[in-house]
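Input chain follows. Return structure tokens only.
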Amino acid sequence: MTRVLVVDDKEENTYYLRALLGAHGCEVECARNGAEALAMARRAPPELVISDLLMPVMDGYTLLRHWKADERLHAVPFVVYTATYTEPEDERLALNLGADAFILKPAEPEAFLERLHAVRPAVAPDAAPRAQRPLVDEAGRLREYSETLVRKLEERTLQLEESNRLLRRDAAAREGAEAALRESEERFRLLAESVDDVFWLSDLHGNIFYVSPSYDVVWGRSRDLLLTRPEGWDEAMHPEDRERMARSLAGYATGQWDETFRIVRPDGATRWIRARAFPVRDPSGEVYRVVGVSRDITEYRRLEEQFRQAQKMEAVGRLAGGVAHDFNNLLSVILSYTSLVLDDLKPGDPLRGDIEEVRRAGERATDLTRQLLAFSRQQVLQPKVLDLSQVVLDMEKMLRRLLGEDIGLSILTARAGSRVYADPSQIEQIVMNLAVNARDAMLRGGRLAIEVGDATLDAAYAQHVGVEPGLYVMLAVTDTGTGMDAPTRERIFEPFFTTKATGKGTGLGLSTVFGIVKQSHGHVHVHSEPGQGTTFKVYLPCTNRALELVAPSLPVVATLRGTETILLVEDDDQVREMNRTILRRNGYNVLDAQNGGEAFLISERFGARIHLLLTDVVMPRMSGRALAERIGPARPDMKVLYVSGYTEDSIVHHGVLDAGIMFLPKPITPEALLRKVREVLAAP
């Protein structure tokens, strides 16, 4: 068995040679450098040495020099096996120093063993002793060795410099990547911590391993607790939504999940949540993670419900306004003809009582249509600058009679100057309706407080309720009555909605308040709880206009009769016939037309003076205002009286009557018509 000494500082190289040579009957010993190998060989010379060149402590060249200079070792074959010194000059130097073979790493096992066999015969038992090979002169050998070392040092230096450059580049790239990662993490942190939405990351089974800080705010619970107790997610779910949400989780693993549900916060508040999940895929396209976002949509839900309620109120308002307009024409005919019949009946006539009942029914219907028009915001308003405090104080005696002795009344008014621009009769209607509503809620007596004060609605609240921000005058009416629950509060302003017994109310009182306030560009708010009473707060815009002086009274009408010529224009046949009859019975010369075009032709053909144009406002093809403007230039001394039942016409803007317009609201009674005609004709 051949004893072989392997010299190499790389453990993987010695392991490989030990296995290769051992498999071919060699006994292998290993050394990590030249000094260690020289010491081992001097103690027990091997039969073959295989040495690397580049090693610490003592390199292969130095080991070779010492080896060949040693009397006991110089005959032992020395094989150089290197991967570093690969140039022809390196091989020549090794051979000059006495190497028996020069093999480059890596070598195929068969080729490597053949080279070794070419050297090993020299050490066979029957081989003749090897003579020491003559060496070149010592100076030349050292010079060649030095030049090889310098060249290798230069190569290694260049390699080290290149390695350092690559290391610096890699370090810079790694530092840049780390900085980009830190920046990305910081951006994500700022995003997650700055928005109100809740972000989360989970696996496909719904196990959450990240949730953003907004969870603490929206859920009112600790996100740290959620991460340690995932069941907290289910515990926060509204009981009515848990079963539905549990079923929806079947699609969660796909990453396509969009659900709306409720949660209950620890303080008892219920919040609406919309949660959406999105898939995160690995390079193969498989979903392995889910990222999600939850948003508190409680306010959106409330606004959505408010919008639906507003749409419903608007639709009912349009219907009510249309019905009221048509009823005004019918009531004009009923009230006028009953008045004409009553004028012809003697005081003791048995029919008189029946006709008077018909008239009273018509008057009650008139009040009903007026309330419908108020709710639908189609009344014609004649606003004035009012001191709201003074309006309420002037109503105190009437309110006390209305409330009765078992209900106490207190009025608290602000300093003088709480002025609004509104129709006085409509403001009184608001106070009266709210007082009646409060009285009916205090069947066993109680207290009613009316307060007038200044208020400021900021932009957020104003946008929330649909008015302009700024200064307002607040009218608050508070009772100690039975109060209302939430479902009742949601419907109190609907027309015909009432909690009273059948026949005890029309359900139009609060809807009238709502319509008047909205038409006056204000806002009404109610706060009530069962058994805790109710507070209505009405906000009307402040005005900087000065209080108006008392307008001069119109001339006192001595008689309702006249002889002037009146051009009557009305598209409703019954109303036109009725007005013509009333006017002609009282001495007037009446020219009647059913539309604007016909009236214009009559005006052109009639050669005498027309003293008054009495016209409906809303008519097919040509409005009353357009007719007056067309006839006016040819008849500058003709006066105009408009008749209408609601605001969707050309003589009002936003429900306010234009200045200088003479107006008679429907329904019409004979006395109202004749008195207004005389007032207009007598005016300067």
